[in-house]
Write a structure and sequence with these properties.
- By secondary structure, the protein is mainly alpha-helical.
- 70% of the residues lie in helices and 0% in strands.
- It is built from 21 helices and no strands.
- It has helices spanning 2-6, 18-47, 57-63, 82-90, 92-110, 112-128, 130-136, 138-152, 155-166, 172-176, 181-200, 203-223, 236-245, 260-264, 267-296, 302-333, 338-363, 367-381, 391-395, 400-426, 432-456.
- The chain is globular and about 60 Å long.
- It starts with a helix and ends in a 30-residue tail after the last helix.
- Pfam families: MFS_1.
- GO terms for molecular function: symporter activity.
- It is a multi-pass membrane protein.
């Protein structure tokens, strides 16, 4: 398969195939997806005036070492308490949870190009007006973040239906690693926004990410299409290869009714849902709270905060890419079945971070150990791309968007719950002892999720994925190039 792909002639890009262009745009899209999300987590450190300090705004900026320039950055700060801050961080998930399942199903019907593209474009525009919403009042910025979550919630499940039409089964783990570029986006956004905030004020973090988002959206609609058959500039060689490797369904297939009863009674589906919920609960807790923990417990300044907060995300993407290439290689060579590969990498990616959170509960008060453990835990968690993350494409590619939408719906509740949990535990005493409770909760959640998938996960194509007439072809997912219609 790999050799065949290398034989593609140059197409309209001059050197890249359409599949490669799709990979690049999806990678950049998920980088942007998290840039639009996590800009607030670093900006909020400077948005809030700490009333417990009796210093002036200038003294506060001095104490946080945000002005290496000779002149102070005069910027608006808001009198929001810890509960309001966590409320603002968590409200994103109120909207996010509403569009996960509809977004996946809508992409199966009308295509991921429109769902992913328009959602990101509108979210970018909202990001540009975020400073204005904050100045208008706390209620306005909360409402904006809810709508932002509503838009971005549809993006993640939308990509799986596109993968089922563009990416051969034995290359899908590598393609799914593009989704972990969200971590790479966070890794880059944190230090860049930290630098921008230090020199130009917190508003610059929103302007920067919003402008980048609009530019990406324009490029997305110019070069990405829902299937090889719809792409106007794809070469005949690449189109024929993909049509052979992935027999494209008829236009009505995307409108097949969802087999809800079979899906909801399927242990492999619930293994994906529960494991994803557990993994993302831990991930979102770190994404939303790590800058605050670094500032309030470890006492790093805002510039170091942005850099240190980015390390776990950079490690996660690199691990996602490496593990996905390894998993596809093991499956292609026959050394591991799809089921064995998914279980092995999921157990590693979700179970081991749980153990590390126990270690964090004991050593997290130390600056070096704390950053090292956070970085290692999230780095290892990147291997979910070789595990459960793309498992919906294995068991039911026709409904992969719906399955991932169901899984992300649960994880969205977990994202809100994590901010609520930390807010309640630290609102009175923001101490390391209170954070130890957070770490123990994360440890139990991670381990529970890993055990669920190891026990109930599967890599086999499920009977309810296809119409009755297509049942004889169910076993051919592992040999896409040899598929022939009966």
């Amino acid at each position: 398969m790999a050799k065949t792909e290398k034989s593609f002639p140059r197409n309209f890009t001059g050197c890249l195939t359409c599949v490669q262009v799709l990979n690049i745009m999806v990678l950049l899209g998920f980088m942007l997806n998290y840039a639009l999300r996590v800009n607030l987590t670093i900006a909020i450190v400077e948005m809030i005036y700490d009333e417990k300090d009796n210093h002036t705004i200038a003294n506060i900026t001095d104490s946080m070492n945000v002005t290496q320039h000779p002149e102070h950055i005069e910027q608006t700060r808001y009198h929001w308490d810890t509960k309001q801050k966590n409320h603002l961080l968590g409200c994103f998930f109120w909207g996010y949870v509403l569009t996960e399942l509809p977004g996946g199903r809508l992409a199966e019907i009308i295509g991921a190009r429109r769902v992913f593209g328009y959602s990101t474009l509108l979210a970018s525009i909202l990001t540009l007006v975020s400073p204005g919403a904050a100045s208008a009042g706390f209620g306005w910025i909360v409402a904006l973040r809810v709508v932002l979550g509503f838009l971005l919630g549809a993006t993640w499940p939308a990509i799986l239906p596109m993968a089922s039409k563009w990416i051969p089964p034995m290359d899908r783990s590598k393609f799914m690693s593009n989704m972990m570029a969200s971590s790479l986006g966070a890794a880059m956004t944190m230090p860049i926004c930290g630098f921008l905030i230090a020199h130009f004020g917190w508003e610059s973090a929103f302007y920067f990410t919003g402008i980048i988002g609009v530019m990406w959206s324009v490029a997305w609609f110019a070069v990405v299409y829902d299937s090889p058959a719809q792409h106007p500039r794809i070469s005949e060689t690449e189109r024929n290869y993909l049509l052979k490797a992935l027999p494209q369904e008829s236009n009505t297939k995307g409108h097949m009714p969802v087999p809800w009863r079979s899906m909801l009674l399927s242990p492999p589906v619930w293994a994906i849902i529960i494991t994803h919920g557990a993994s993302v609960f831990g991930y979102f807790t770190v994404v939303n709270q790590l800058p605050t923990y670094i500032e309030s417990i470890l006492h790093f300044n805002i510039k170091h905060n942005g850099l240190l907060s980015s390390l776990p995300y950079l490690g996660k993407y690199l691990c996602a890419l490496a593990s996905s290439v390894l998993a596809d290689s093991l499956r292609r060579s026959g050394r591991l079945s799809t089921t064995a590969a998914r279980k092995l990498f999921t157990g590693f990616a979700v179970g081991l971070p749980g153990i590390l959170m126990v270690v964090q509960a004991f050593l997290g008060h130390d600056r070096v150990w704390s950053i090292a453990i956070f970085t290692l835990a999230l780095t290892i968690n990147g291997a979910v791309t070789a595990g459960y993350l793309g498992n919906g494409l294995d068991i039911a590619p026709n409904f992969s968007g719906t399955i991932f939408g169901m899984a992300n719906t649960l994880s969205s509740f977990g994202g809100w719950l994590s901010t609520f949990m930390v807010g309640e535990l630290t609102k009175v005493h923001n101490t390391y002892e209170q954070w130890q409770i957070v770490f123990y909760i994360l440890a139990g959640t991670y381990v529970f999720g890993a055990l669920c998938f190891v026990c109930f996960g599967s890599g086999e194509l499920q009977p309810w994925n296809s119409p009755k007439a297509a049942v004889p072809n169910q076993k051919q997912e592992e040999q896409p190039l040899n598929e022939e219609k009966a």
